[in-house]
Amino acid sequence: MAIDRKTVEHVAALARLGLSDEEKDRLARELSGILDHVADLSRWNTDQVEPLYHILPIKNVTRDDAPARSGVRDDVLQHAPKSRPPFFAVPNVLEE
């Protein structure tokens, strides 16, 4: 499928892109090549090919999402300039 310069100008106008004449010609050639490649791919018979989400047989490894005490909060609060456990004490940013 050939993309002509007029189509590139239309898409560029929709995207509010300012393209030079050279860029329009180059993009018309590149987009035509991409669409030709996709057309070539669509000619392959893939009826016997299993659909894949990823090329490698990797699955997400997850851990249980269970609440647990980490003890980090107490360590961090010990090194804070001011604190009111279990919170950091910061200067007021809003007037009362």
Taking pLDDT < 50 over at least 5 consecutive residues as the criterion, the unreliable ranges are none
Largest sheet: 2 strands, antiparallel
The average pLDDT is 89
- What's the end-to-end separation, in Å? 68 Å
Measured as a percent range, the helix fraction is: 40-55%
How much is the radius of gyration in Å?
A: 29 Å
Order of helices and strands: HHHEE
Number of helices: 3
What can you see in these coordinates?
With 96 residues, the chain is mainly alpha-helical. The protein has a domain at 5-42: Histone, subunit A (Orthogonal Bundle). Helix content is 41%, strand content 4%. It contains three helices and two strands, in the order H-H-H-E-E. It has helices at residues 5-14, 21-42, 72-78, and strands at residues 83-84, 87-88. The protein has a two-stranded antiparallel ribbon with strand order 1-2. A hairpin with a 2-residue loop joins strand 1 and strand 2. Helix 1 (5-14) packs across helix 2. It is elongated, with a radius of gyration of 29 Å. It starts with a helix and ends in an 8-residue tail after the last strand. The model has no long low-confidence stretch (mean pLDDT 89).
Brief summary of the model shown:
With 96 residues, this protein is mainly alpha-helical. It has three helices and two strands.
Topology record:
Blueprint: H1 5-14, H2 21-42, H3 72-78, E1 83-84, E2 87-88
Antiparallel strand pairs: 1-2
Helix pairs in contact: 1-2
Pick out its properties.
96 residues, mainly alpha, Histone, subunit A, two-stranded antiparallel sheet
